[in-house]
Amino acid sequence: MQSQRIFVYLLTFSFLLGVSACSGSSSGDPFNGDGGTSGVGGSTGTGGASGIGGTGTGGTGTGGMGTGGTGAVGGTGGCHIIQCDGRTTLCGDCMDNDGDGLIDNDDPECLGPCDNYEGEELLSGVGGETGEQCKADCYFDFGNGAGNDDCHWSRSCDPLEPKVQCTYDETKLGGNDCPVTQSQLCEDVCTPLTPNGCDCFGCCTFPELAGLGPDGGTGYVYIGSESGCTFETVTDPIFCQACTPAGNCLNTCERCEICLGKPDIPADCFPGTGGSGGSGGTGGSGGMAGSGGGERCPVGKQVCGLPGDDPCPGGSFCLTGCCTDIVVQ
Predict the structure, then answer these.
(1) Domain count of the fold of the chain
(2) Residue 267 falls inside a structural domain
(3) Per-residue confidence at 316, pLDDT binned at 50, 70, 90?
(4) Could you list the residue range(s) of the whole structural domain that residue 328 is in?
(5) ∠ at Cα 177 (173, 181), nearest 5°?
(6) Which of 60, 94, 180, 247 lies 20 to 30 A from 218 at CA?
(7) For residues 120 and 152, which has the higher predicted lDDT (pLDDT)?
C-alpha cells in the first residue's frame, strides 16, 4: 500500500514537469501568467481647424436717402418715392410695408400717394376727419381739417347715417357743412387724389355693390367705417356702412376706367379694338367705338396699371389706372 502511494506521487510529479516544459509562450508564473503585450492604438486624429464665417456687409442704396436697398427720390426698380404735402407716406415710400408682395401703387390697398395705411382695411391713416365727430374734409390728401384743401362735409348730411352718432340733419343741406358745390381749392387739391368710384370724403362704390343701393341703384359704402371695411367685406353692412356720395365731388367709375375693386376693363376699351363698319348698300350701322363708350384716362393723363402700360414717371402715382402728378411742397 505504501509503495502504491509512492508510485502515484512520482507519476503526478512527472506529469507536472511535462506540463511546465510545454508552456513556453507566456512569460511569468505559469498559473498566473501575464497576458501578451497589448498593442498600442494609433494616434487620435486631429480635426481640421474650424472655419470662421466672413461677415457680410450690406450694400448702400444710391440716391442719397436710400439705405440697404431702399431707393431715394427717383427710387429703384421702377418705383419712385413720392412726397405728399412734403411728407413721405407708407404708400409712397417704395416699400412693401404690409408684406403682401405688392408695393405702393401696385398694391390696391394703397388708395393714393397720401395714404399712410398700407394694410387690409381701406383706411387712409391720415386725413378725412376734422377732429369733430361728424365733420369731414378730403379723405385722400394728407392732413386733418379743411385748412389745406377747403373741402367741407358732414356725415350728418347723409340720410344713410354712415357714421355712428352722426344722425341725419336735413337743415344742414346747402349750408357751410354740406355745400351744394365745393370750392375751387377743394377741386384743385382733392379731386386729383380721389380714386375712380369715390367722392372726396371716402364714400365709394365697388362692382359687388351694383344694384344694392337705394331703389336698386348703385350702392356706396364709407370706406373709413370704424368696424374695418376691406375689399372682401364691402357687401357686409357690419363692416362697411352704406353712404350717399356727395355729388358735388364724386369721381364716378366709368365702363372703361379702372376703379376700386375693378382692376380690369373690357377688351373693347383699348384703341383699335372697335367693331368693323356696316356693309355698304344697306346703310349698315357703324362699328363699336374703340373707347367702348369712354376713355381710360382724362386727356393729358398717362394710362397705367395694366400689362403693357408704361410705368408712371417720377413724381406721379398710378391712381386707379391713370398717372397722377403729385406736387412736392
Answers:
(1) 1
(2) yes
(3) confident
(4) 256-274+286-329
(5) 70
(6) 180
(7) 152
